[in-house]
Amino acid sequence: PGASMYEFVRSHESGARTYANSIDVVIERGEGTAVFDTAGRRYLDFLMCAGTLATGHNHPAVLERIQRFLQSGHVMQVLDITTPAKHDFLTRLLECLPSPWASRARVQFCGPTGADAIEAALKLFKTATGRRSVIAFHGAYHGMTAGALALTGNLSAKRHVASLMPDVYFMPFPYAYRCPFGLGGKLTSQVSLAYIERALTDPESGIPHPAAMVVEVIQGEGGVIPANVDWLRGLRQITARLDIPLVIDEVQTGIGRTGTMFAFDAAGIEPDAIVISKAIGGGFPMSLVVYDKKYDVWQSGAHAGTFRGNQIAMAAGTACLDVIRDEQLVTAAQAKGEYLGGRLAELAAQYSIIGDVRGRGLMWGLEIVDPTARPDAIGSHPANREMALALKHRCLRNGLILENGGRYGAVLRMLPPLNVSLDEIDEAVTILAQALKEASD
Ligand code: PMP
């Protein structure tokens, strides 16, 4: 039955399919870090819906809460009317924010996707400041809707779209390994900050006073590129000095993923807004903008969206936050992430096609390179991408789901659940090592 189900879906679904093209099975069940196909074969899921399932597949406590909610007779959708589910969710969410900031926070519930909340944030800050330009970063990813795509740094995602939101200005993200400007290790945090400050203050740069700066603390789709805490603090100082609202996109990094509740927590800064989605819905679609109340300029109805009140997502999200607290999964993500990072560094020492190992918490990337070429040699990128894809396919065939990404598609990415076990990490590393060995033979 699996093969005919697969074929039926494949022949009717859009050409934008990704995974489904390289994994010709039907995934039926999930439990913890594993998923199972219709033939009962087990795969370790080190992708978790791009980091969405923080507590793994079907965590019993999350399942139990969803079942209890469904049986309770509570409403499922009520636009933005107050409900007990919303009250409980908001209470838990605010507990997760750094404390002085939480007391000033306002929350806009948005539609189901991260891109939805990015659009809301753009609209809010354009309204609040009366300005129209926006600052984004090379290599950034913020989603596929028109405004979010305009902020996405890599051209490949938007090359074929004729018109996008105008007035977006891109700044250099501190990515020294394969610097897109060919600067290699010279694109340090200080150089990036110096450039940004100059570009935003020099009247000759032609950048109008921006409505917002939107940034990821660790670029995820962009190839797992962590910015260091000093860079983020520097960015906060510059934006505060120049009165530019700082919007941090925590869609992928939020909810414990990087070993702190939010990635910006590590820098101890206060942003003007954060955008949250993925893990916050406990596996159900939800997105939010949390922002400083001084920007709360919206009048009733100024922002809307039918599914901004998905009650199951609120119940599941509350359960997920409870599990993360009760099982101390943020600290676990930090410790297990260090272990995973160490194991990946061992592989890098063994296989020269791993050029760089980067990550924080349970968000890791391996940059695949041609060891005989300079890391920033443009010509080697297509071959590196092919190699990354070949490794990904080998891992899939051998029972490990991961993702490739990055500006050139040459970064293998891992986003296991926060409650992944050390044994599962070892198992995944063994499968990856086997794929690397086969590729190097
Ligand atoms: N921002 C970041 C940092 C993301 O990683 C993503 C999705 N990968 C998005 C925004 C967009 O979220 P969605 O796919 O739910 O629209």
Automatic annotation (TrEMBL):
Q: What Pfam families does its record include?
A: Aminotran_3
Matches recorded under InterPro entries = Aminotrans_3, Aminotrans_3_PPA_site, Dat, PyrdxlP-dep_Trfase, PyrdxlP-dep_Trfase_major, PyrdxlP-dep_Trfase_small
PROSITE patterns the UniProt entry points to: AA_TRANSFER_CLASS_3
- Give the cofactors, semicolon-separated: pyridoxal 5'-phosphate
Instruction: Spell out the Gene3D superfamilies in the cross-references.
Output: Aspartate Aminotransferase, domain 1 (3.90.1150.10), Type I PLP-dependent aspartate aminotransferase-like (Major domain) (3.40.640.10)
Keywords of this protein's UniProt record, alphabetized? Aminotransferase, Pyridoxal phosphate, Transferase
Source domain of life: Bacteria
Task: State the family named in the UniProt similarity comment for this chain.
Answer: Belongs to the class-III pyridoxal-phosphate-dependent aminotransferase family.
The name of this protein is Diaminobutyrate--2-oxoglutarate transaminase family protein
In its UniProt entry, the species of origin is given as Pendulispora brunnea
